[in-house]
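Reposting from the mailing list since nobody answered there.

I have sequence plus structure tokens for a pair of proteins and want to know whether others read the tokens the same way I do. The first protein:
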Amino acid sequence: MVTQAGPSRARPLWVVCALGVLAVSMIAALLDGAADISPWQVVLQVVDWLPFTHVDSGLAPVEQGLLFELRLPRVLVAAVVGGLLAMAGAGYQGVFRNPLADPYLLGAAAGAGLAATAAIVLLPSVAGSIPVAAFLGAVGGVFLAYTLGNTAGRAGGTATLVLAGVAVTSFLTAIQTFVQQFKVEELQRIYSWILGDVGGGWDQLWLVLPYAAVSAVLLLLHGRMLDVLSVGDEEATSLGLRAARVRLMVLLAASLATAAAVAVSGLIGFVGIVVPHVVRRIAGGSYRIVLPLSLIGGAAFLVLADLVARTVIAPAELPIGVVTMFVGAPFFVAVLRMTRRAAT
């Protein structure tokens, strides 16, 4: 169970440090590529892009186009998707009071992936069908996992929900594979999407931003309420909190964040486990700071993961989901061991 380990040690300094890490990560990602551009020129060009500023970076128009049309949208999409997945993970952990809750393991990502694949195959010409389908699939996946987990009662311990999520994820993935066969010519595109891809460009960024803004605001507004829920439903109710309503709102907001991320980037796992746990270790357990720091930390984490994916076997690329799995799988095992020790 996720509990609040005393008062948060967070200060505004943590947010400033997290933003600094994110800025450095984004600059490093902008520097990576075939064209050799100096870090100082990249910094000057980024400043020149800001409103009400004009700085001569010394870059040729071709180099400016390379940064603006290829590298920058990819970095921004990775940052938005990483922030959404990390915030969703923190939200799910708060709702279920389970440190192993994660969009990828709870069935949310698989549900969104199945629904989005069905939209690609069955509704290719319907504008906006993928995000809506992904949202409905994410909510459905979490509902199935939660319902299946509850059939075991409390005897299963904290791992019961995750085991149910794994079962639901496997089942939905099997259905997704079946649906793919109806669009064989799109298999390569769907396969790349399943393994994660943040290179969709500006169109993908504009697609995800409205959903990202709504879900992020909703989750941030519920940080204090999640802190109250962490002491238990009865205590929260005695303090005047409508626990069921809060859980529903956070669940919907986290599912919307997951769906938006999946719709533009495919299935990227373990971000929602790794980042919130690191944040809690550093800054304390209050969701008033866990949520915003997860947003910033998740953005930095996925930007760096994408940088690794682009460079480790250059000039070829690894799917970004493979990189997060290499990091997340051992981390998940470590969290599971700590959870089992804490329960005994």
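The second protein, same order (residues first, tokens after):
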Amino acid sequence: MTKPIYLDYAAATPLDERVLAAMQPYFSDAFYNPAATYVSAQNVRKAVETARSQVAALLGARPAEVHFLPGATAADRFALEYILARHPDKRLLASAVEHPSVRRVVQGHGGSEVPVKSDGIVDLRALQKQINDDVVLVSIMYANNEVGAIQPLADIGRLLTQVREQRRQAGNPLPLYFHTDATQAANYLDLHVSRLGVDFMVLNGGKVYGPKQMAVLFANGSLDLHVHTGTENVPGIVGCARALELVQHDRHTESRRLQILQKLFFHLLAEKIPNVTVNGSIKHRLPSNVHITMPGQDNERLLMALDEAGIMAAAGSACQASSEEPSHVLTAMGVSDGAAQASLRFTMGRGTTEADIRRAVDVLAGLVASHSA
């Protein structure tokens, strides 16, 4: 039997064996509650604080600015709702391609969406115009989970710094915070919060070959934010920190490897599938992402047929896989509903090989040809 090919790494990654090894003691021998006062429990507390320091070092942050929460959705909501609680009558801005966890909060509190261009990159001029004197927070995801577009966070950070200075000179005391969901970026991009100019950053263990339902929330120390989640998930915290260390250490090497595979993927698709189009920026794109539209095709039919052939892919965000609505990301990019329903996302990772790419494209091309005949 042919080995299945997994091309949905943006949805979930397998647990790294080195991460599992780091977590293992805290499931069994070192099972103690880190809040207890006896020596064995305090040794577990040290493991939690060591993990916090490890993540802080990766982010260029202080350990007190690093918080662990049960999942990225919870972390995103916590950050946004914390600001809303402090400034209940002020407004939030978020890009039109944000994750649903962010969009729901922003829309639920009367916030506004910042448009993106056809390549999925935020329109900086539009963003600048939308930041009025009542905007207290801007949320822009670092890299899009559907089309892989990488947003210019450092440029946005500099823009927000200018706005803060203008407010100071005008006597407006309202702060302006910058939040980013970086869950898709951690495998490949710089996470240094000062270089990026962000006040909040969310990372997801389940996207970096670490434990699921384990997230990191960086919050600028000036906010004096305190997170209380009950008994801490020590194996998850230790594993998340170790996973982030590993992917950040290898990010340049892995990015170069995947860029070669991505280029091959695009070349083979163009060669074998007539009229295929690539969605999202080519230049500013995660090396793992291939998102395409095949006019006249039905993505649900293709996904089922690919699955039967042993190839696992996606039509978009895993969080919206059961929705019959067109992707809000593609809609924001100006893609028609019909084209959106003819689109597929393939995301590569550590286990992806050249042979996988060649077989996946051959199978997909065969399915498209049979439907078009």
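Reply #1 (J.P.):
I read it the same way you do. The chain has two domains: 5-13+251-372, 17-248.
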